Amino acid sequence: MQTKAAILWERHAPWSVETIELDPPKSSEVLVKIIASGMCHSDEHLVTGDLAGATPEPPLIGGHEGAGEVLEVGPGVFSVQPGDHVVFGFVPACGRCPSCASGHSNICDLGAITATGKQLSDGTSRHHSNGKDLALGIGALGTFAHHTVVNEASCIKIEKHLPLDKACLMGCGVVTGWGAAVYAAQVGPGDTVAVVGAGGIGANAIQGARLAGARVIAAIDPIEFKRKKAMDFGATHTHESVDEALGAMGETTWNRGFDKVIMTCGVGNGDVLGKAFWLGGKLSKIVVVNIHPTTEASIAIPAAFLTFFEKQLIGSLFGSGNTRRDIPKLLELYTQGQLDLDGLVTKTYTLDGINQGYADMNAGKNIRGVMVYEH
Predict the structure, then answer these.
(1) Residue 256's domain spans which residues?
(2) SS3 of 64, please?
(3) Do residues 112 and 219 both lie within one domain?
(4) For 326-346, what is each residue's pLDDT tens digit?
């Protein structure tokens, strides 16, 4: 079949929206009509090359926050059928590898295969343009398209009454931020929490900390719009910089330092992480969620604090969450009014508006832009 997709033909180039050829699903694969796709900062890393070596090389179709309707399933697919509504989890979950079997499906072994951009089942492509095979970007999903073919391991069935233009955000940003606070940082009642970066992931880390009972949530971001939105999501204090937050710790933490520090910047930076490490107090957890460029070989932290203050430096992928457990659970919290998805969506775009959407993101105008597709 033919469909439209946004293709990145080379690094540092704009997305090109054009017609592609899409093959039918093979064994363990699903054809999905995508209704909406979130515009996560991680896909900007495909353009800049920050994740070189960990993601496929162009030409590729981007997008990893998507939701839509199943149109067709290949042989052996049993968890979804045509007509079902699904959200894609940007990390596939096979359910059989050691990571999945031990309750850590967010680091499923299939994740290594997604770096090739090929289909997880056989290493070939279903997406083609101008006689060339197209890779799929982060998660081997390709949600910057009206239709895609993905592995069943990436599909999470959801109830049909849920709005897909909000549910799509569950594929990455919401679970990643919420889980970073609830699972990786283990925020508890009465904790003091600093969230460094108040964009799409940081906003959900704030929501997670609020739901977990934190008494202080300090949002740190240089952009005033994001600081104001952070208060809507549950922040109790806002700061323009880490330095400003350090100067205010007498007020926010009674000079004890924060119990939890969650790094959710657009692009990770070792120097910023080193400075933010000072925000944590004794027994604090410093959780790194944002992606650092693969070329960054080291980070600057005062290592003695790891021993003397028992600080912990923790990495977290997909919020250390579980797609099949957490996506339905958080959607239930949304329907109960406990989790704000509507407020995350600053502006919607069409597929043709993808470059404007990313320009707005880079200008700090959006918490999350969402592309809603017309079929």
Answers:
(1) 177-317
(2) coil
(3) no
(4) 999 999 999 999 999 999 999
